[in-house]
Amino acid sequence: MAAGRRVDDNARVKEGYLRAPAGWSRRERGGLGPFVTREEFVRADGARVLWESRWHRKHPQAGSEGSTWWAPRTIPWWIGVLFAIGSSCFAVGAFPPYANAVGTTADNVTYFVGSIFFTTAAFLQYFEAATTPRLLGGPHRRRFRQLFDVQHHRIDWWASLIQLVGTLWFNRTTLSALVVGLGASPSHHPVWRPDAFGSICFLVSSWLAWAEECHGVFAWRPRDLSWWITFVNLVGSIAFGVSAVASYVKPNGQLVSLALTNLGTFIGALCFLVGGLLLLPERTEGDPAKTPALALA
Question: How many CA atoms does the CB half-sphere of 37 hold within 13 Å?
Answer without folding.
Answer: 25
